Amino acid sequence: MSGPVRVLLADDHTLVRRGVRLILEAEPDLTVVAEAGDGAEAVERARAGDVDLAVLDIAMPRMTGLQAARELTRRLPGLRVLMLTMYDNEQYFFEALKAGACGYVLKSVADRDLVAACRAAMRDEAFVCPGAERALVRSWLERLHRGDGLPERAVTEREEEILKLVAEGHTSREIAALLFISAKTVERHRANILHKLGLRDRLELTRYAIRAGLVDP
Length: 217
Prior knowledge:
GO terms for molecular function: DNA binding. Helices cover 54% and strands 13% of the residues.
């Protein structure tokens, strides 16, 4: 590339964004050109400007980093995506790969690994921080030995979007406006989610969303 890599940084904590920005902008080949406080804003910012790389937190309001990654890789196939997270969790890791991310970096070692991950992403190489990589490979081999695969998604991507927004306290009309669908469609999806998951009401949906990492407790 002729100039520095243009980075979009998305995290709902301002102090985290500030710290990550300092790490990236200490390097001459990286520059943060946009920030976002949630996944939906990250998608808007990426579509609005010239961005080469999106660094996304997993747990964010309105739209998670995983949901944003899916949307970005669909809409902007040339954009590279990295997940920056506190979750050393194999399911999140594999979901990140399925969503189109090319790297998975833990916040606890961001000062050590994030710059290398950004450079690897721009070379179209995958990056997983070494400690997580060993644990994930060991876990994957154990799954294969047992004849297990990855668990299937319990709900569709659209249902996951609606589940998250319901758990955050949005009404059906508000969700319809955010997702550009009708309130009746929202209600139908919500009924399907309750049926699929064997849940009864918003409280149980919220508890499920917390366990699934869609919203913070």
